[in-house]
C-alpha cells in the first residue's frame, strides 16, 4: 500500500466524484480509478459504491477514511520533523563550557539559541578544556566552548569571541587612579592566579606577556575558581589578569582597568572532525552564537 493510494482515496471520498478527485491529485481519471481498485484489492473489501451521479463510501470505506487521513497526517509530520532535524531545529545538544564563560558569553549564546530553536533540548556541562576535548572524543558532548588552542587533531574549531585581558586591582590601589595601564606597571605587584595545570593555555599566555615587559609575575596565592581569585583581589592579596568579560562580575573591593597591548584571548567552539560541519544542530548553535555575540565575534 502506497501513500499515493491513500491520497487518491481521500480525494475521492471528499470530492465524491472521480473526475474532480483526479483533477485534485493531478492524475487522469482512469489512473485514479485503477488506484482505488488496487487499494480495494489489497484491503480485500469494497471501499466505495460507484453510481452514475456520485461516489459514496461503504461502511468499511468510512472507517478506512479515518485511518487514511491519520496515516497521511502522520507521514506529513514525519517528513516535516525530518526536515527540521536536518536544519538543526529539533533534537538534543550537549554543550561543554569552561567555567569563566558562565560570566560572559555563555548566557547570551544559550538564550539566543533557545529563542531561535525552542524544540532543541540543551544540556550544559562545566568542564576544563582538557575535559572537553576528552568528552568530545568520547561522544559525551556535541560541542565545546573553550579557549584556544585546541590540540586534538580529531577536533575542528571555530573562533566565536575575542577578548583582551584586563587588570583586576584591589579598590583603592594606586594604579586604580590611572585610566589605562601598561603591563610593566604591574611588575612589582603580587599576583593571584590559577594553578598552571588547570589553565595551562591561559597561564602561559599571561607569563609570556609579562616576560615581554621583562619580569616574571610574583604569584603569591593560587585558587581554582574566578570568583575566589577576585575575592582574593578584593582582600588585597594581589592583582589578577582576567579576560575582559569578567568585568561583568561586579565584586565590592575590585576595580578593573584596561591594559595597553593586552593579548587577545580567543574563545572557540569545537566539535568532532568526523562530523562534517559539526552536524545540523551544531551548525545552528554556531549561527546562534555569532548572532548573540554580534560584533565581538572573531573573524
From TrEMBL:
A Pfam family: LysR_substrate
Protein family according to the UniProt entry: Belongs to the LysR transcriptional regulatory family.
Keywords: DNA-binding, Transcription, Transcription regulation
Alphabetized SUPFAM superfamilies for the sequence: Periplasmic binding protein-like II, Winged helix' DNA-binding domain
Name the UniProt record assigns to this protein: Transcriptional regulator, LysR family
Protein source organism: Deinococcus hopiensis KR-140
Domain HTH lysR-type: 1-58
Annotated GO MF terms: DNA binding; DNA-binding transcription factor activity
InterPro entries (UniProt xref): LysR_HTH_N (IPR000847), LysR_subst-bd (IPR005119), WH-like_DNA-bd_sf (IPR036388), WH_DNA-bd_sf (IPR036390)
GO CC term, one of those recorded: protein-DNA complex
